[in-house]
Design a protein that fits this description.
The chain is α+β, with helices and mostly antiparallel strands. About 45% of the residues lie in helices and about 20% in strands.
């Protein structure tokens, strides 16, 4: 397995060789048309980037030559140096030197750059007019150079998306073939299907691996952002980053970019107090903000934690009651974690005035929707006066998801594992009817429980979700799901297994049914509906 340093070096070399080819192309254009401002600007940009990248990864010779060439083209842009034939010859030699340095990064026998050439570059850089330039004899061009191609290629993300969709289709057919081989009890077919399973699994992980990027490509943008916001707010904030080398699907990173930016801005704007206020509270004058990524099985967990003022739960409770999102008697008994989930309701804000965007909850519904769209989860923990923590749980892939399969009324269903907390079996006597719903004590926690058969098949006007008399048998299989800090128990008829599935959108008019998040095809050829846990949870919140 390649080390992280080796991967970085390969990426640098591939990009540097692209820069080298582009530089040759642009300087050839400039030789014929020195007034081509676009080619001149692009040449300057490429040299500047190459200089910075080489210095960052420790290739100082490449950085030094790039810097000299960058300075020369800067003089040409400012009209302090003319693009004469003598200057062009030196610049071509300089770019050739860059190519040699890049291709010989791993060549220990490669010597120092030619001192005739380096002297000419220095003369061009140090001299501000043609009349003072006295160049040494330049090398002769090597017309017998061989051409080579990079071992790395860049693939547009759309092509990888298409490949992953095809892998998903292949997985469905693979499961169908495996199921048939068991039904037919054919040894040869079993061997082929077993081999197909391994190949498909390797292909799936290969394609998914090609889409991975370091989360640091996003994290490393935040020090400057936090610094600018803190200065604008007249605050002192220290940002700590961890886990930049954690890898994540590029599409998922793209989706969460705006959400993470919003949360960071909120933390600095409204979470962390001013230096004077912090000192008055006995805190250090500098606020602490941590942005941490880590792997958790097949998920990536991103934690954003501040040591600011925290969230006032009484304010949240009062605001929720005032907006008629919850009844006062229910609000009193609601756990803190569930009360905090109201911050994700559309338009929910703790601001004193509607026009004053100073409430911690403004825009969090947009963040929630973005994370929901990829099958992720977000939760909040907060202690007044101590600080607030946002936890983002993100899947490794959008197209392929781990799911729990089960059956209700002879129909197959699936729930994404990211929303599944636990599976328990309890007796019917342990279920209690409270108002319109059933509740149960599950591992010391009171959880609302619903019979899925009633929810999915009865008309809403006829639903009696708190009626135990409709349940079958004395033992109830319950899947405990979680969404937005709220837990819900779903009673199912039969539990099956965990399985990777490819979720396809429902066709019209079924796509208008909120309770279903899509459909997949099982190995048996049967259609399996995928439940939308966020929609089911929201349905129960509105009922109470």
């Amino acid at each position: 397995m390649k080390s992280r340093e080796q991967e970085y070096k390969e990426i640098f070399i591939a990009e540097a060789l692209e820069y080298y080819d582009a530089l040759n192309r642009h300087i050839s254009v400039l030789e014929k048309n020195p007034q081509d401002d676009q080619a001149l600007a692009e040449t300057f940009r490429l040299l500047h980037n190459l200089k910075a990248n080489a210095k960052a990864i420790g290739y100082l010779q490449i950085s030094d030559v790039s810097h000299k060439l960058e300075t020369a083209f800067s003089l040409i842009r400012s009209k302090e140096l003319s693009f004469s034939q003598e200057v062009v010859a030196v610049l071509f030699d300089g770019i050739d030197l860059l190519g040699d340095l890049i291709t010989n990064i791993d060549n220990d026998t490669y010597g120092e750059p030619d001192p005739v050439l380096m002297r000419n570059l220095d003369i061009i850089v140090d001299s501000l007019s043609d009349s003072t330039i006295e160049l040494a004899k330049v090398q002769k061009y090597n017309t017998a150079k061989s051409l080579s191609l990079s071992d790395l290629i860049y693939i547009p993300i759309k092509k990888l998306d298409h490949m992953l969709n095809l892998v998903g289709e292949l997985m469905i057919d693979r499961d169908r073939i495996i199921s048939l081989s068991r039904e037919l009890d054919n040894d040869e077919l079993k061997n082929v299907s077993s081999h197909l399973y391994r190949i498909t699994e390797d292909l799936q992980y290969s394609v998914m691996g090609a889409r991975l990027v370091n989360i640091g490509s996003l994290f490393n943008k935040f020090p400057r952002i936090v610094r600018d916001i803190a200065i604008a707010e007249n605050k002192e904030v220290n940002l700590v980053l961890e886990g930049q080398d954690i890898q994540i699907d590029r599409n998922i990173l793209q989706i969460i970019t705006d959400s993470l930016l919003h949360l960071v801005r909120n933390a600095v704007n409204h979470g962390i107090e001013s230096a004077a206020e912090r000192v008055k509270k006995g805190k250090p004058s500098t606020g602490q903000l941590s942005l941490i990524a880590r792997n958790d099985r097949d998920n990536v967990i991103i934690t954003l934690e501040d040591d600011g003022k925290g969230i006032d739960l009484k304010q949240v409770r009062d605001a929720a009651i005032e907006r008629k999102l919850i009844m006062p008697d229910v609000a009193k008994a609601l756990p803190d974690t569930e009360m905090l989930s109201f911050l994700f309701e559309p338009g929910f804000s703790l601001a004193k005035e509607v026009t004053e965007f100073s409430g911690r909850g403004v825009g969090l519904d947009v963040v929630k929707n973005a994370i929901d769209s990829m099958g992720g989860r977000i939760s909040i923990n907060s202690v007044k006066g101590k600080g607030t923590t946002f936890i983002l749980q993100l899947p490794t892939s959008i197209a392929v998801k781990g799911a729990l399969l089960f059956e209700v009324d002879n129909i197959f269903y699936a729930i994404p594992l990211i929303h599944t907390e636990q599976v328990v079996a309890i007796t019917t006597d342990e279920l209690h009817e409270v108002g319109e719903v059933m509740v149960a004590d599950i591992k010391g926690e009171t959880v609302t429980v619903v019979y899925l058969h009633e929810l999915l098949n009865a008309e809403e006007a006829d639903m009696r979700l708190g009626d135990k008399s409709k349940l079958k048998g004395q033992i109830q299989n319950i899947i405990v799901v979680s969404y937005n800090n709220r837990k819900l128990g779903l009673i199912v008829d039969k539990l099956y297994r965990q399985q990777d599935i490819v979720i396809k959108p429902l066709s019209k008019p079924l796509d208008t049914i909120d309770l279903y998040g899509g459909v997949t095809l099982l190995g048996t050829g049967k259609v399996c509906l995928v439940l939308d846990v966020p929609a089911i949870t929201r349905f129960f919140i509105t009922r109470r």
